[in-house]
């Protein structure tokens, strides 16, 4: 069997086209959706992610603000900036690129973003909520993967990927197992999965023999192989011989993550527009 490819680039292009139309409609009502991105430090991968997010905004007809801080910046400066952006009615989405330098309390920073503007969905009020804009969920939905009663195994328990994904799938009546670095016999778990989500950050650690025939594999990992090329946590070549459907890296979850960030910013702006319209009607 050769797995069906869940093409994040194609799905993104389709959704971004619709977003651009909606952004144009909002602009006609005098509101330009705006995403503010905060980058602290000089991590090259983070700099590329932020650059791509800002470029995608512009392309979709949305405005963006990019604030870059030195790695040793006083966290109070960043908190003050977030408070300013929270209060700015022309800003609809705020993202803080992770990871932050060690002297930051990342959880406190994420909590300081207004939940309405938390377009990454990291605020405690948003994590695990049935957010429209979760990129991994959107891919499962687009591929018509049955969720009710499905055995799901998630490898990785981080607050930003593994845990929210588990909550979302639990809410969709999947049976969810979360594995991590201390899990015994990882392959025993992964081989039971109808849906396998890999979110570890270790190149090609999930191999074809660890996958149940016909399973859907969502590869969240972004790594570099020994030749410096982008690759996921899943060994794509062996996995695609066994899986029923699989997201590639690159061209899978990555582009969808940016797309859903834009979608969430736009939705936030649309909520503001609806509020404004109601205000006018009163
Ligand atoms: P993270 O915070 O480092 O978490 C990694 C998780 O993997 C931890 O729960 C860890 O277990 C677990 N783990 C480590 N080694 C393991 C092993 N040998 N067996 C089983 N589990 C193991 O990473 P993250 O922030 O969640 O990111 C994970 C990956 O997704 C990275 O490659 C990152 O670049 C990528 N990512 C991609 C996107 C996207 O848009 N595509 C977005 C965010 C992140 P412990 O908890 O026990 O340490």
List its traits.
282 residues; alpha/beta; Rossmann fold; 2 domains; six-stranded parallel sheet; three-stranded parallel sheet; binds NADP nicotinamide-adenine-dinucleotide phosphate
List the SSEs and their pairings:
Elements: E1 4-5, H1 8-28, E2 34-40, H2 44-59, E3 63-69, H3 75-87, E4 93-96, H4 106-112, H5 135-142, E5 151-155, H6 162-171, E6 175-179, H7 186-190, E7 195-198, E8 216-219, E9 223-224, E10 230-231, H8 236-239, E11 245-246, H9 253-281
Parallel strand pairs: 1-11, 2-3, 2-4, 5-6, 5-7, 7-8, 8-11
Antiparallel strand pairs: 9-10
Bound molecules: NADP nicotinamide-adenine-dinucleotide phosphate (NAP).
Residues 155-158, 160-162, 179-183, 186, 199-202, 220-223, 253-254, 257 line the site of NADP nicotinamide-adenine-dinucleotide phosphate.
């Amino acid at each position: 069997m050769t797995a069906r490819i869940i093409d994040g680039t194609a799905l993104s292009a389709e959704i971004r086209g619709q977003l651009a139309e909606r952004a144009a409609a909002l602009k006609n009502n005098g509101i330009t959706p705006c995403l503010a991105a905060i980058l602290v430090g000089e991590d090259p991968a983070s700099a590329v992610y932020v650059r791509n997010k800002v470029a995608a905004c512009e392309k979709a007809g949305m405005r963006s603000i990019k604030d870059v801080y030195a790695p040793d910046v006083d966290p109070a400066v960043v908190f003050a900036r977030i408070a300013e952006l929270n209060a700015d009615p022309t800003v609809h989405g705020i993202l803080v690129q992770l990871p932050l330098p060690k002297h930051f309390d990342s959880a406190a920073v994420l909590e300081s973003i207004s939940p309405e503007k938390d377009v990454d969905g990291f605020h405690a009020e948003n994590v695990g909520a049935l957010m429209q804009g979760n990129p991994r969920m959107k891919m499962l939905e687009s591929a018509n993967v049955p969720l009710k009663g499905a055995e799901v195994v998630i490898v990785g328990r981080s607050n930003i990927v593994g845990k929210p994904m588990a909550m979302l799938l639990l809410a969709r009546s999947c049976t969810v197992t979360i594995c991590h670095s201390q899990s015994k016999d990882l392959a025993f778990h992964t081989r039971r999965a109808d849906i396998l989500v890999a979110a570890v950050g270790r190149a090609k650690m999930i191999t074809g023999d660890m996958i149940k025939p016909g399973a859907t594999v969502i590869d969240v990992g972004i790594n570099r192989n020994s030749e410096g090329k982008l690759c996921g946590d899943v060994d794509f070549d062996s996995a695609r011989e066994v899986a029923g459907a699989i997201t590639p890296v690159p061209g899978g979850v990555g582009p969808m993550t940016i797309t859903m960030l834009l979608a969430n910013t736009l939705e936030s702006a649309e909520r503001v527009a609806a509020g404004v319209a109601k205000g006018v009607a009163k």
